[in-house]
Fold:
Amino acid sequence: MGRARARGRKPGRETVTADTPAGQDPGDVLAYRSLSAVVIFLVTAAAGALGDLASKSKVFSQLLDSPAHSTMVIPGLLRFTLSTNPGIVFGLRLAPWAILLATMAAVVAVAVLFATSARRFRWLHVALGMVLGGALGNAYDRLFSYVHLPGESRAHVGEVRDFIDFYPISYPLFNVADILLVVGVCIILLHVFRHRKDPRPGGR
Structure:
C-alpha cells in the first residue's frame, strides 16, 4: 500500500521519510522538522534584513552631503528623502517600551507560526521570513543607529532610518523593512483566510 502511494505521487512532491508518521502525508509534517522549510524561512529573513540595512546605508551615505537630503527617483512620483522615525512602521508612534515589547512579540509569534505550520506551505514560510527580516532590520536601527542630519541641532539615536517618499500623496516616509512587514502580513492573512477550515495537522 505504501509503495503504491509513493509511485503514484507526481514528480516534485515530497516523499515519505523516516520521520514521517505512518499514514501521514509528508507535506503535513511540521515545518521545523523540514530542512528545506527552515532554509526558506531563514534565508528570506536574512535577505530581507540585509537588504533593508544595505539600502538604508547606501541612501543615507549618499544623501547626507546633499543640502536638501533628497533626490528624485521617479519624477512626479518617488524620491528618496532622509528622515528618522522614533515610532514603528510608516511613522506610527509608540512609547519606547511598547515598541520593544511589540518587536519581541512579533519575533516570537513568527517563530511559533513557522514551527506549527505544515512544511507544504512554502509561501507562508516566505511571508513569515519577510516579517522577521523586516522586524530585525528596524530593530537594528533602534539598537545601533546614529544619524546626525546637517543643519539639525541634535543627533538621532536609536531611531529608524526612512527614505522612501511618495511625495504626491503626502504619505509618511518608510523603508524596505516596512514594505517587508506589510507585504508579509498581507500574505499571512490571505493564507489564514484560504486555509482557515483545513482540518489537517499544521493546516494554518
Summary: Strands lie at 70-74, 78-85, 146-147, 156-157, 160-165.
